[in-house]
Amino acid sequence: MSTHNYHLAARIMHWSMALLILSMLFAGLAMVQSLEPWHLTFLQLHKSFGVVALLAVIARVVVRLRFTPPPLPSSVPVLQQKIAKFSHMLLYLAMFAMPLSGYLMQSAAGRPVVVFDLFALPQILPQNLALYGFLREFHGWVAWAFIALILVHIGAALHHGLIKRDGVLQQMLGSKPKD
Amino acid sequence: MKRPDQFPLAVRYGLIAVIVGGLALLFLAVASGFGQRVVTAQEFVNFQEGGNPHQGFRRAHAKGFCIAGEFIASNHVGAYTTAAVFNQRSTPFTGRISTGGGNPTAPDLASSVRSLALSFNPGTRDAWHTAMNTPPVMPVRTPEDFYAFAQVFAPDPETGQQNPERIGAFLAAHPETQAVREWQASYTPTGSFATETYNSINAFYLVDNERNKRAIRWSAKPSARAVAGSVIELTDDPNALRNEFMARLEHGPIVFDMIFTFANDSDDETDPTVLWGDDREQRLAGIIMVHRATPEADGNCDAINFDPLILPRGMAPTDDKILRARSAAYAESYRRRARENLMNARGEGSQ
Question: Required co-factor (chain A) (predicted)?
Answer without folding.
Answer: heme b
